[in-house]
Fold 2-isopropylmalate synthase.
Amino acid sequence: MPMLPDPSIKYKPYTPLNLPDRQWPSKVVKKAPIWLSTDLRDGNQALANPMTIEQKTIFFKTLIKCGFKEIEVAYPAASETDFNFVRGLIEQKQIPDDVWLQVLTPAREDLIKRTVEAVAGTKKAIIHMYNATCPCFRDVVFRNNKEETIALAIKHTKIVRQLTDECTAKYGTQFKYEYSPETFTQTEPEFALAVCEAVKTAWGKAGPGEDERIIFNLPATVEIAPPNHYADQIENFCRNISERENIVVSLHPHNDRGQGCAAAELALMAGADRVEGCLFGNGERTGNVDIVNLALNFYTQGITPNLDFSDIQSVIDVVTSCNDLPIHPRHPYAGELVFTAFSGSHQDAIKKGFEAQRIRHAAAEEKGEIKYWDIPYLPIDPADLGCTYEAVIRVNAQSGKGGIAYLIQQHLGLDLPRKMQIAFYSVIQEIADREAREMMVEDITTAFRTSYKFGGSKYEGRLALKSFKIAAEPAIDSNGNEDEPADERRLFDGSVSVDGTLRVIHGEGNGPLSALLDALRTHLDLDFTVREYSEHSIGEGSSVKAASYVEIVRGGQDVKESRKSSESWWGVGVDADIAASGLRAVLSAVNSAIGDRVLPELRLSVGFNTKSGLADIASIILNSLQLELPRRLQASFFETVQRYARDRAGELSYSDLIELFKDTYRYEVPETPGRIIIKTFKMQESGDKKELSGEFVCDGKSRFLSGTGNGPLSALLSILNPQINGTLSVREYSEHSIGEGSEVKAVSYVELSYDVDGRSKRETAWGVAADTDITASGLKAVLIAARRLNVSLKPVVNGQ
Ligand SMILES: CC(=O)SCCNC(=O)CCNC(=O)[C@H](O)C(C)(C)COP(=O)(O)OP(=O)(O)OC[C@H]1O[C@@H](n2cnc3c(N)ncnc32)[C@H](O)[C@@H]1OP(=O)(O)O
Ligand SMILES: CC(C)C(=O)C(=O)O
């Protein structure tokens, strides 16, 4: 059957109340009402499979935990289950002293008796009696006229009074009485008032004390009108019922028009004191009013709701399992999608909102002001309900850069610059479109790591920084201006893995990044310049790290061109050292830029292009012996290599080169009896100095010698210098480890200079040595350098 073109031939509109002086529209509710949960009665009676005693017990405990002080637990006359459940609660003393047990009964003597019996012995009980008062029910269900309806209510109220008085006398149970004219909203307003006046008189003991007041529960049993009509009806009732102070006006909205919450809120403005409803809106048909929704509406107005949903998920779990009904994903406050934004503009606003709020809160904190929650699209802080921000932003093809950047910030701690957000957004968009699915956080972080070669060896790109040193040297002041100090130039010396092979590279620039780019240009033929750079810190205290972001463009363009260039690549780097984070960011961007481009191979070049030749030879030593030669040693060895190659007409293989290195520096070559050998040694503290003592063999003669210095090397020189003609001193020293775990060794590089009186030229030589003991490696390196300098020993006097 189609819908009617003119529904007025079938449905009557509601009759508005003539209340021209209504006050409620300008009232503001400033405190939460008394709440009654009727989950275990109205909610339960609406279930296909009403709850078992076990389920009701679990639910009851949850309601107590949420803070309900009035709970309608059953319709005890309806079933053994309900009756026994109530008895169980009482007999097992499961009811806190401040909680009222409410039970429902129709206006029938036998059923009232059974109901009072159910609660006998409990501390506090509310007997809730109802009978139908509206014309349709009067005529159709009860076939009673108005007088008979009032008489029924009076008679059974008196029965309730008598039975409860007897129960109080016998068991000490304290009673309140609640009466519901069903369905209030469809009852003539003056008749609803007349019935309630009659019931109040019949009850005979309503007073102004908190526990003396009679409860008139005014149900919108079926929601048949807009919420303003309910508010008018409630205001009219409150204004016209006598002894208002002796009455609790209670609301019992249903949700047939989907306006249960609105009706309750307007009716509270109209003067009601109490609300009956169910968690998440279970109940007959479309349900009772949702108390969680109402309570949290109060909360988000800054009003304490007197109910606690700070672990809303545990409440959802109990309610859904006991009711065996799901909660809609869009259900206010509780649905799994209600704190989630998929769409780009929402995500962007939320991200900006969090940033702005952080700043606002910091300022408010300083001024001792309230830190108000004010985030676009999020009326409540999910954390207040025990939810995480995890699901606030979820990404699909409708999402924008802001949301994606938010997730990167949340999960990787990176605050991407705006232009990089745009660049990464297109990466995600492409995947989301192609795969036509939601992008989970892990999809996004993995795409980020893969795109920017970020996050450890697993994501390493074709170029990866292995070690580096940045040195400063004064720049030549081209202006010749002596008043201002000249800027310093930066020298980059480092090793970079290039497609798995270690390469030693050197470069110079105004700063570390341009020095690295210069090194890439020189050694790998990669020409890029930085167009944008930014950085921020991650974390605090000793664990603080720097995150750097760079945008590079092709080199060889002038500033104007490079500013306009539409082709650019972004990179990111994180490191405890800020220079390292910037260098990593450059390599990350370069990795994107080079794609599959073939890079110049590592070759043995001993020609006159010293910059790359020197580095290539250092790279070969690094790859074969794992030795990271200091810059000056590279230069020194390079000269040796060039001489060697010249003597052999340029013929030099990789293995020749390695042998040449070992031979030159006596590296990993068994010690041959030299002019000075250390056989055994001991280091010990001597005041704030170090004392070295040991057995030395000088020109084949064993000597026990000792000396002190600031460290082992100066202590050794203090031993050697008195034995030789001239003076040895350390010009440069460095060390690093090679190998891993128990195989780890220290390698020391020492450059000694040798001054001999009468010789105009000071001689220098390098020594390289490795040992599992770092002191021994340093001492050995000194002795190798000394032997290479051909120091002449003084003659031995008296065995000394
Ligand atoms: C709006 C609400 O939610 S009201 C609460 C509704 N909840 C329930 O009905 C759940 C529990 N109900 C039950 O278990 C049963 O209906 C019982 C035990 C109360 C009564 O069962 P029965 O005696 O078999 O009667 P039945 O279920 O047919 O109820 C209808 C009878 O009760 C009468 N009745 C209905 N409401 C009331 C009332 N509030 N006061 C007095 N009598 C009433 C009807 O007029 C009808 O009487 P009739 O048999 O003389 O025509
Ligand atoms: C018993 C009454 C209050 C009721 O449940 C209703 O009218 O919906």
Remarks:
- The chain has a mean pLDDT of 93.
